[in-house]
Structures are given as C-alpha cells and as structure tokens.
Write a structure and sequence with these properties.
The protein has 322 residues and is α+β, with helices and mostly antiparallel strands. 56% of the residues lie in helices and 16% in strands. The two termini are 34 Å apart.
Length: 322
C-alpha cells in the first residue's frame, strides 16, 4: 500500500525594506517572494515601519523582489531553512541620474527620475490607504493629488481604478484603467490585466480578449496575464485555448488555489474529468478550509462517481468482447 506523502513543513519569511543611503525604512512597498525555480510564492506590502512578512512558505530558496516608487528594482536571494528566515533586510537604491543615461533601461530610469517626489509620496500614501486600511475614497484623493503634480502618472490611474472597483463603481474604474493603458502606450502590465478582468466580470468578453492578449504578449511569464486571457476565452467559449492559458497560469503560480478552480472550469467545459479531478484535489490540498471548499468537495465526489461508472462500463464491454 502506498504511504501517504507528508505535507511539506512551512515557515515564515520576514524582515524590512530600507533606503540604502539614509537607512530609513520604506512604507507601502510591494514585495514579491519568488521561488528560484520560477513562479510566485506570495505578494505583500511593507507596513509603516517598513516590515513585511510571508507566512506558510515551504523550505527552499527564493528571491525577494521589490521596487518602491523612486527606487531601482532589487532582487535578493534568501534561503528558507527549517525554522524560517527572520530579520531579512532588503536595501534599495535610488537611481543615479548620471548613470541612468547609459544603462539599457535608461528610458524607464529617466521617467522615474522625472516623477516629482511629491507625486511619488502621494501614490505611496494612496497605496497604504488602499491596501492596508481599505480607505478607498481616501486613496482616490491621494492618487488624484499625484496626478495633479504629474499628469502622466499611469500607475496612479491604475491604482485609482482598483479603488473605484472596490467601491463598486465599475464605470469610473474602467475610465481610470483605460487612461493608465493609454498613458503607458499599452506597456503597463498591471493596467492591462486589471482592465481585462474588469471587462470579463461585466461579461464583455469580446472587449476583454484583445486587452488580455496584449498583456500576455507583453509578458508571457505573467500568471496574471495568462489567467486574464483564459477567463476571457472561457466567456467566448474558446474552451481549448482557455485551457492552455489557464494551465500556463497554474504552472507559473502552482500555489494559488483560485487558479486551479479557473482551470477546473475549462476542464468542465471540455468534459475532461480526470484532469478536472486533479484540479479539484489541488484546490483542496492548498485551501482545505477555503470559501469554496465544501462546494469543491461535493463536485469532487460527483466527478469520482462519474469516473467510477465509466471505468466499470469500460471493463464490462471489454469482458464481453471475443
């Protein structure tokens, strides 16, 4: 009899983000934890004291990726042993103007340097209100202040779109996201993914598909872009294409239980029941007490019954063949 596999031990990764020059801790910086093998283990935002924490992280080697507004992007490797990785300090540097003209990414760096500090501060404040305090109206005011100072601030428009969506104002959300896409000349991945998801939620699948495709073209390794495209394709009943996009999203971020449910929807449409059973089991393994857990268990029991009947029927047919 096979021996059940033990659930991997999981631990915490915590620390803080600091300015390399002043050693001030940086608030409201988005930080990602990426396994060195690929994918995304989690995303969080630093608190007022610059601290961050990831929980339920398996033992392994990861990269901490962070780029606060006005700073260069940093990727710092961290090993997570038994017991976890605590007190990790991530230093970030502001771009050097003289050097920025000669780097391969000078176009991005020059733009970052052109954003007034007052506008950057307003966006950081807005992000804190949006993601940590759920003060959506307050965050919109902060993002508007940033745009008044720097009208081409497409990131601020995207964050504003998120805030309007949280308030249930889909029209204003779409307007802000489209402005972000326009100002970035369709090069800001987050705005494209958010707009495609918004349109899909409104069942405007024909409008969502080309925007999601542009996001995938921009970054094929983005799980968010692939999932946005997969959901739009499902709405258009392009089920086989949807399965491919959603399978790519799952491969890029296998620890995300919601993605397994999205892929399950494609397999239901295609009547691929063995694959569907794998999707449902993966969801329950990752989130056994999640909001859809009971529904998924019921669906899994139904699928198992269907497969059992199919196997019995196949065996009966085989037995009668000469």
């Amino acid at each position: 009899m096979p021996v059940p596999l033990e659930r991997p031990a999981v631990f915490s990764v915590s620390g803080w983000v600091v300015d390399a020059g002043s050693h001030d801790r940086i608030e409201s910086a988005i930080i990602e934890l990426e396994p060195v093998t690929g994918g995304l283990a989690g995303t969080t935002v630093t608190m007022g004291n610059g601290e961050f924490e990831f929980q339920n992280i398996p033992v392994g080697t990861y990269n901490l990726v962070v780029q606060p507004l006005g700073y260069e992007k940093v990727s710092q490797e961290v090993a997570v042993p038994y017991g976890g990785a605590l007190g990790v300090e991530v230093e970030v540097h502001r771009p050097v103007p003289a050097a920025a003209q000669f780097r391969g990414d000078s176009k991005v760096s020059v733009r970052e340097l052109s954003i007034p500090q007052k506008a950057q501060d307003a966006v950081e404040k807005g992000m804190g209100l949006l993601y940590k305090k759920s003060d959506y109206q307050g965050s919109i005011k902060a993002f508007r202040r940033a745009i008044q100072v720097y009208p081409d601030y497409y990131e601020a428009y995207a964050y504003m779109g998120v805030a309007y969506e949280k308030l249930g104002d889909a029209s204003s959300s779409e307007q802000a996201l489209r402005k972000s896409v326009e100002l970035s000349q369709e090069h800001y991945l987050n705005a494209l993914c958010l707009l495609a998801a918004l349109l899909t939620d409104q069942r405007r699948f024909t409008d969502a598909e080309p925007i999601a495709r542009r996001a995938v073209d921009l970054d094929p390794s983005s799980w968010l872009a692939n999932s946005a495209l997969g959901n739009a394709l499902l709405g258009l009943s392009k089920n086989k294409e949807a399965e491919a996009s959603l399978a790519a999203a799952v491969k890029l971020q296998p620890q995300n239980p919601t993605l397994h449910l999205m892929l399950a929807n494609a397999h239901i449409r295609l009547r691929e029941y063995p694959a569907l059973l794998e999707d449902l089991n993966a969801y329950l393994e990752l989130d056994p007490k999640g909001p859809f857990a009971n529904q998924v268990r019921t669906e899994r029991d139904t699928v198992q019954s269907v497969l059992a009947r199919t196997q019995v029927g196949s065996a009966a047919v085989s037995a009668t063949e000469p």
